[in-house]
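Exercise 7. Predict the joint structure of the components listed below.
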Amino acid sequence: VALALQIAGGGPTLADPRTVAHGKAIYFGVGCSNCHGGVGQGSILTGPALAPLQLSDEAVVRYVRRPTGLMPPFSATILSENDLQVIIAYLRSQPPTRPPSEIPLLAPYVASSRGK
Amino acid sequence: MKKPVEGDRRRFLKATLVLGAAGASAPSLVASAKAAETAASAGSAATPTEQRLRSEFGALDGHDPQSLAIAEVVDPGSDFMVDLLRAADIPYVIAMAGSTFRGLHESIVNYGGNHAPELITCVHEEISAAMCHGYAKVAGKPIACMVHSDVGVQHASMAIYNAWCDRAPMIVLVGNWLDATKRRPWVEWDLSMADVGAIVRDFVKWDDIPVSLQHYSESFMRAREIAMTPPYEPVLLVADSGLQEDPIADRSKLSIPRRAPVSPPAGEPAEIDLVADMLIAAKSPVIVADRAARTAEGMGLVVQLAEALNAPVIDKGGRLNIPTNHYLNQTFLQQSLLAGADVILGLELTDIWGVINDVPDLPGRESRRIVSQTTKVIGISSNYGFVKANVQDIQRYYAADITIAADAQACLPQLIESLNRKLGPAQRQAIAAKKPALEAAFHALRASSAADAARSWDASPIGTGRLCMEIWDQIKGLDWALVCETTTSAWPQRLWDITEYHQYGGSSGGAGVGYMAPAAAGAALAHRDAGRIPVVIQSDGDLMMLPGTLWTLAHHKLPLLMVVHNNRAWHQETMHLQRMAEWRNRGAGTWAVGTTLVDPAIDYATVARGMGVWAEGPISDPAALRPAIARALAVVKQGEPALLDVLTQPR
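Solution:
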């Protein structure tokens, strides 16, 4: 279920590396990575991509607390506000995805979509 | 020919002792002696002595062993059973050794010369049966596994169940002593059942306990044809141990029936015409196919049908029903296509209800229809006429608008002919006009999949998209096959050009973990004979069920590229446990308890090497993947199995 609620825009943020490292630990620890992948890449089988994060912090918090799709809710009892914020920091720290056109093994698929 | 005699066990013991004393000179005996020597030097069983045999098998009741004549058994019943295997075109018999089929085992090796059928050695009966399953889907015909009475059937049962759910043929031959007066005390009673087929009767199509060799002969041929009449399914035949071991009373009274292939059931012409009318009247027909194509010809028919209507196809993946690079393969647009369909044609779906409806994994499990209320639904499947009560692969009942109990592949020529006969010029023009949009949707879908794969391209552990595309890049120029579905994010179906029927092996059917490795080995056996390079993207949890498969791969030199998708978990279960905890608002972070394969992490390369398989790993650097695949493929091209252990993202 997509988190396509609000678009915040922007590239990776320059958060404190310790915050990012802590966010990564929480991201893996509470199991976000199980469905959304270790770098937030998502999977058609389990959950949408989270990186690059295109939602505002508020939208992420709102959805995580009260999801409307298949994702189970994470209450403040099991995921504190602070932990949720550092998860967001971790996701925002992810580098931009390389365009498939720049990856030799994927470029032909992009070309085919352009009718070549 | 000698008549059956009492005390045959004692004569066997005597013969064993005499052979042991005389020494061995024939090549096979030399090989056996070497094997025994190897075992002894490794600290296992010692060479049998008379004293040891006496202690193991009991006293000889006061008889002097030297006074017992050696009775030569000429023309044993199991030799005739080998003749039957040959007549039925069974090139392989797969088995872990067991005394209840020692007669047939010996006949295959010595009477048959261990060629067509050749004995394939396994270390677990579940491997034997799963190899039959994997072989049948590649070769399009059954082979047999021999299993050891009740214990062997129980071991094999999981793999037989998978084959049942996957509509795959195999012949399960069960050794069993029917005549209670011939059973030795204790163990042969424990290894006998009055009705051994009962263990798996809920998921074999037919079973029998022949009580004479002629009965066995006719039942064997019947079993083969039943297995190969759609829906294909496993069958089981008891090869009574007495029938195997006793001499044939009179060969002239035995006969082997000729094979009599059965035409699959096809639909009534009038019903097929109704289907054609409904499809022609539809604006947005969608074809959903699961095990529709039984052969390469069947896949060609699905393509013909789809092209005749320019109808997108959703391939459920039980078999390859349409090439993945065909513009009408729009499997990954399933949700929107079904929502917009006005007619859905289901071809060999075991779960037509599940195409039309869903039960979201949410508390309460409320079901919901996911297609329009006005959508017409057609079901063609041989499953309608063949079900069992206990197993629930029958799925939920759905009242389709037209239901035809017939083999879909057998119906397709009629349906295509009916469409061609009925379609007028204006209708053909309207259908042709759909093609540009369908092609654009297909290419957009592939581009979207490529973008998805790029998201974790440089990740470590390695992204499954990167994993699959690195493999694809190195096999696409070969005569290759992907022998099982993957537990990645369906990258091969999304990005590989899978164009030949034999290039995709589909799913387990019954979702029984432990299928992939042995089914891949069975498929590798068939692909070896066809000169192909088979590949399996092997789930780590699945491999741990039957790791002994690796030994069979090495022992029989079965070329197979096994790339372990090692996410160090039964990953589906991690997500299930996590959902439970979060719904209950407790235990965040406990999802790893009982669902992960860590502490210690398993070193699959070491496991494989220990069983004689070339292996490398664990590989976690994506840049190291490409050269490692090249090295492994070089081994496979030389006719050997190779394993790469790759640390991966979850899906």
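Discussion. Confidence is low (pLDDT under 50) at residues 1-28, 42-46 of chain B.
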